[in-house]
Specification:
mainly alpha, about 200 residues
Length: about 200
Amino acid sequence: MSSHTVEPSLPPTADRAEPPPHPTEFDRARRPAGFRALRRVAEHVDAHALTLLRATVGIVFVGFGVLKLFPSASPAEQLAVDAATKMTLGLLPETVLLISLAALETAIGIGLIAGRRLLRPALVAFFLHMGGVFSTLFLLPDAMWQPHSPAPTMEGQYVVKNVVLVAVCLVVAANEWSRGAGARGPDGTARPPAG
């Protein structure tokens, strides 16, 4: 005995919905001017996203670094000094610590903004600095965390929000180091330049 199965038939082609056609230049030209302008801005931002990311983080670092040069101008001044004092075991005067932090943050910011040869050292300094920043969550627990609660204080929130800057610089660093890795062979030796 042979079994006979009936395969389901597809509806006629006229009944099936056809995919919409790709927009033509004529269709694109009929879009509102605002849509076209937004599209151009989006394309420009997309093309320069990494530069925009590193420059904005750089501007933030220069701004906060310069603030630390003026007494009581930075809202994080005392927090930074207290944490740095604990990290250095109180061996350095507060003014030296504050000026050093100001110089470090300003240098990181300039390196991020300038890019090129300054970018890699700035990224290394950035991640080391962030290690120090996040260590305040453990070094100064009374200032960072609300009593009897896992919620951060205002000062703790000031530190925790730096995860955004870390994420941005991870993206920038990944791009920077992957470009450098492309110039090496599988065995790690440098490849000669093309051309």
